[in-house]
């Protein structure tokens, strides 16, 4: 059974997809599902089991362990038992650190697996049944509802709408509304509504599964590891050269051969830097303790060295450069007397006991909350993607009934039948704010039996953090270029970038990465485009991975911030992966640095501290 990629499924209508998957709206038979499960395998992330013992002993193999092992054997040969036990203890210490790092890397995959659904409702033999999510196959008809983790990549076929939290995918906090023919991704969460969809891909072929595959593939050899190997090799060859010269000179002088061999062995043991990896590890561990007092948790010790050499930092916009807090901007008044009247009617069209970011922002704009007590709510109609507005039916203090509404500006304008100069003015304002990247809300009211009155337009935006511009300037002084990365559109990205003096060369990533091969193996042209960009818009997590790969290919030591499940591959691939405050378990497991407080200044301070620590390592 051949699966249909989510990109192909997106281009097809439901009938074409049904035909391609050899299924129908009635679902599969149990027998057919069993057959497909054998062909495609379970709907789960593949696991590679390697014995813990094998993994541990692998850390006794390689240039640095060989160097220490030779020293231990030579100490035993010359009967320096104390030296032997000390060197052996150092060998175990270094192996233990490496083993712990590998376990942490595997935790990134475990955290990804924890995000997947456990159960699912499918249509089999014409009946709705609940099954293990791992038993889902391509062609299954699945029902999703509020609170569900979507069990596979699917195309929605029936129902009105669902609101889906894709924060793990894009990092953006507002849920995305989906309707029939839209795509839902495995691992995302249904926040509102109920719909039916057809499964196009399962397991490792899902968008989520490919992320797990990237996590497995991701990871570059650290500059610290390269430096230790290089120094170790240099010292070993130097000592062997000196021992050979001394041995020949003493032999020509006629010294006793046995005495010479013992002398040569002692000299070789003394010249091998057995303590170097341990001393550097301890230095970095002490540095990690210092950083922890600055609200930064170091999860990979070698990351301190990477941080010291950092020259490009790719930073998320939302929450790191900006406050991740919607704020009311300038209002445009039509029938409303002033800003507060406009906000009052918008607030009356909002739910006050909700976590909806837009409603909370609108209500917070009210200066006098006592005005709410003048109105009694009779009925509230929540937002849905079909109507694209909320509505409240109320009575005022005199007992008169009125309706208030807020929503997509164009929808509210159509509802109020805005015409002539007012229509012209409203369209101009909406376009002006859209160019700045602001969200706009239309607000209206009507009395019982009357017509809708267009009160005005509210604007919403996510303001930059107060310290972001100064921190970016400080980073630049320290030789670090900050590039902004966001899932938002180019207009929003350009507006924020210009406010922070990052530059205006904002690139849409799908114009750079045409396909998966561009992401995994970027060309020199792609490297140059990414180096030249001030920031990137409409970014999905796999693009972050590609950005890191391209910058590393251009010989940059690259940092990347992230918070979502699907950021894990980019965080693991980066020389310096940073899980921002509030990141998911998967992002934290893949990162080198975990922030416990938001903002760019925390990262730049951590880099400055890492450079001091690296100076101490250099001194050794």
Description of the structure:
This protein is an alpha+beta fold and 620 residues long. It has 4 domains: 6-45 and 116-215, Distorted Sandwich (Calcium-transporting ATPase, cytoplasmic transduction domain A), CATH 2.70.150; 52-113 and 220-274, no CATH class; 294-324 and 464-619, HAD superfamily/HAD-like (Rossmann fold, 3-Layer(aba) Sandwich); 327-460, 3-Layer(aba) Sandwich (Calcium-transporting ATPase, cytoplasmic domain N). Helices cover 47% and strands 19% of the residues. The longest helix is centred in the first third of the chain and has 34 residues, at 81-114. Keywords: ATP-binding, Hydrolase, Magnesium, Membrane, Metal-binding, Nucleotide-binding, Phosphoprotein, Translocase, Transmembrane, Transmembrane helix. Its EC number is 3.6.3.3, 3.6.3.4. Its main location: membrane.
Radius of gyration: 31 Å
Number of helices: 26
Assign the CATH topology of the largest domain. Answer: Rossmann fold
Overall pLDDT confidence: 82
Number of distinct beta strands: 23
Q: How far apart lie the N and C ends?
A: 60 Å
Major sheet size, sense and barrel closure = 8 strands, antiparallel
Structural class comes to alpha+beta
CATH architecture type of the largest domain: 3-Layer(aba) Sandwich
Identify the overall geometry. Answer: elongated
GO cellular component, one term: membrane
Protein name: Lead, cadmium, zinc and mercury transporting ATPase Copper-translocating P-type ATPase
Organism: hydrothermal vent metagenome
InterPro entries: ATPase_P-typ_cation-transptr_N, ATPase_P-typ_cyto_dom_N, ATPase_P-typ_P_site, ATPase_P-typ_TM_dom_sf, ATPase_P-typ_transduc_dom_A_sf, ATPase_P-type_domA, HAD-like_sf, HAD_sf
């Amino acid at each position: 059974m051949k699966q249909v990629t989510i990109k192909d499924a997106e281009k097809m209508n439901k009938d074409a997809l049904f035909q391609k998957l050899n299924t129908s709206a009635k679902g599969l038979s149990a027998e057919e599902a069993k057959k497909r499960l054998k062909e495609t395998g379970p709907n789960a992330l593949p696991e590679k089991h390697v014995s813990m013992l094998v993994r541990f002993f692998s850390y006794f193999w390689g240039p640095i362990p060989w160097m220490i092992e030779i020293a231990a054997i030579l100490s035993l040969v010359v009967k320096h038992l104390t030296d032997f036990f000390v060197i052996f203890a150092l060998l175990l210490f270094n192996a233990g650190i490496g083993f712990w790092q590998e376990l942490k890397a595997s935790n990134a995959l475990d955290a990804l697996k924890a995000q997947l659904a456990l159960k699912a409702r499918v249509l089999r033999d014409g009946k709705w049944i609940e099954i293990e999510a791992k038993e889902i196959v391509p062609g299954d008809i699945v029902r999703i509802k509020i609170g569900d983790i979507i069990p596979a990549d699917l195309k929605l076929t029936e129902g009105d709408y669902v609101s889906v939290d894709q924060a793990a995918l894009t990092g953006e906090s507002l849920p995305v509304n989906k309707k029939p023919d839209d795509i839902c991704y495995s691992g995302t969460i249904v926040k509102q509504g109920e719909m039916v969809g057809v499964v196009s891909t399962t397991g490792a072929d899902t968008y989520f599964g490919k992320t797990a595959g990237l996590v497995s593939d991701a990871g570059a050899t650290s500059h610290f590891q390269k430096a230790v190997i290089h120094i170790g090799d240099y010292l070993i060859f130097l000592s062997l050269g000196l021992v050979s010269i001394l041995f020949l000179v003493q032999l020509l002088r006629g010294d006793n051969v046995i005495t010479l061999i013992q002398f040569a062995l002692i000299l070789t043991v003394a010249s091998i830097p057995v303590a170097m990896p341990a001393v550097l590890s301890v230095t970095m561990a002490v540095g990690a303790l210092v950083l922890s007092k600055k609200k930064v948790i170091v999860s990979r010790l070698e990351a301190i060295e990477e941080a010291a050499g950092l020259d490009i930092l790719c930073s998320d916009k939302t929450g790191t450069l900006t406050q991740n807090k919607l704020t009311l901007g300038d209002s445009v008044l039509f029938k409303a007397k002033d800003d507060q009247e406009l906000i009052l009617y918008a607030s009356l069209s909002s739910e006050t006991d909700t976590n909806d970011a837009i409603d909370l922002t609108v209500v917070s704009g009210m200066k006098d909350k006592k005005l709410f007590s003048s109105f009694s709510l009779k009925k509230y109609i929540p937002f849905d993607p079909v109507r694209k507005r909320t509505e409240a039916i109320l009575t005022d203090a005199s007992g008169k009934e009125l309706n208030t509404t807020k929503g997509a500006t164009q929808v509210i304008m159509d509802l109020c039948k805005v015409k002539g100069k007012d229509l012209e003015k409203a369209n101009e304002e909406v376009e002006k704010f859209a160019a700045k990247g602001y969200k706009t809300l239309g607000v209206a009211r009507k009395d019982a039996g009357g017509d809708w009155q267009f009160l005005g337009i509210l604007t919403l935006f996510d303001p930059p953090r107060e310290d972001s511009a100064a921190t970016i300037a400080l980073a630049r002084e320290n030789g670090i270029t900050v590039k902004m990365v966001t899932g938002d559109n180019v207009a929003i990205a350009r507006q924020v970038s210009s406010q922070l003096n990052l530059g205006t060369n904002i690139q849409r990533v799908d114009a750079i990465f045409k396909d998966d091969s561009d992401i995994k193996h970027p060309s020199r042209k792609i490297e140059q485009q990414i180096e030249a960009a001030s920031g990137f818009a409409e970014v999905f997590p796999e693009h972050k991975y590609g950005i890191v790969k391209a910058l590393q290919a251009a010989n940059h030591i690259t940092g990347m911030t992230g918070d979502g499940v699907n950021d894990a591959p980019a965080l693991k691939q980066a020389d310096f992966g940073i899980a921002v405050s509030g990141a998911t378990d998967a992002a934290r497991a893949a990162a080198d640095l975990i922030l416990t407080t938001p903002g760019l200044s925390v990262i730049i301070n951590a880099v400055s501290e890492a450079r001091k620590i690296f100076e101490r390592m250099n001194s050794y």
